[in-house]
Amino acid sequence: MSSRILSKSLYVAGTVADACRRRRSDRSSDAYQARFPSVTASLDVKDLRKSRTQAGSRFDLVVERFFSRPGEITAVVGESGSGKSTLLDILSLIMRPDSVATFHLERRGGDFIDVADLWARRDERALLRCRREDIGYILQQGGLLPYLSVRDNILLPCAILGRRLCNEDVAEWASRLGITECLHRKPRHISGGQRQRAALLRALLHSPTIVLADEPTAALDRERGREVIGGLQEACRSLNLSAVLVTHDIELVERYSASRWRFVPERVGSDFIRSHLVAD
């Protein structure tokens, strides 16, 4: 599958075991509960840290709390270099944080996945299964394979998982998203907006726990962008799934998202930036 989720190799850096042990005693404290109140969330992250270095420069991502509720779009807004790609790589489980207290995924059926524990135990098989089954990903340019029809692109994640879908399932959502006439065509023969809606359908048809959308409207005009995000919002509500939308488009955020988070970069030194993800 031509996607960052399946094509990028797992980045292994640091360990979270010590951090988990250090914080275990704090989780039951009144102070911790007051700082991080309980929420019903498909994705719940607490006290995450990731440091990256390149060419003598250092970048730290700090996430004290982040969550995404089922049935909603959670927007993340930030400028280039603020940590959006790093955050998405971690949320999609292709990059390991240096430390994290909590990283939970809760499936709609009630199954609970402690991703922080999987990282601590370096259970790569379970992490791979989680990436395949629980995460849908929409790239900026769609990421459709050019040699497959739109229908076969949409069905690819289900084929990888060995799941069968009847034609009615595909037809229903293709109709909702307005791409029925595109299903038999190759990606190069449809518009940018149609490709992004096909990518959206591919990301949600295998019933993931959460969909991650990386600037999915960056190459689209305003009207086509609204169609794509409107389709994502409908899918979240209809299927009760969560979506994390990374975007620069404040108008889309205000119109479609239920909550908004933003990056606050802090220059610590001439070659050192620390970026905090905070609720807006």
Separation, N- and C-terminal Cα atoms? 34 Å
Principal-axis shape: globular
Number of domain units: 1
**Major sheet details:** 10 strands, mixed
Structural class: alpha/beta
Number of helices: 11
Number-wise, the strands total 10
Task: Tell me the strand order in the biggest sheet.
Answer: 5-4-1-2-10-9-3-8-7-6
Order of helices and strands: HHHEEEHEEHHEHHHEHEHEE
CATH secondary-structure class = Alpha Beta
CATH superfamily: P-loop containing nucleotide triphosphate hydrolases
Fraction of residues in β-strands: 25-35%
Radius of gyration over all CA atoms, rounded = 19 Å
Protein name: ABC transporter
Family: Belongs to the ABC transporter superfamily.
Keywords: ATP-binding, Nucleotide-binding
GO molecular function: ATP binding; ATP hydrolysis activity; transmembrane transporter activity
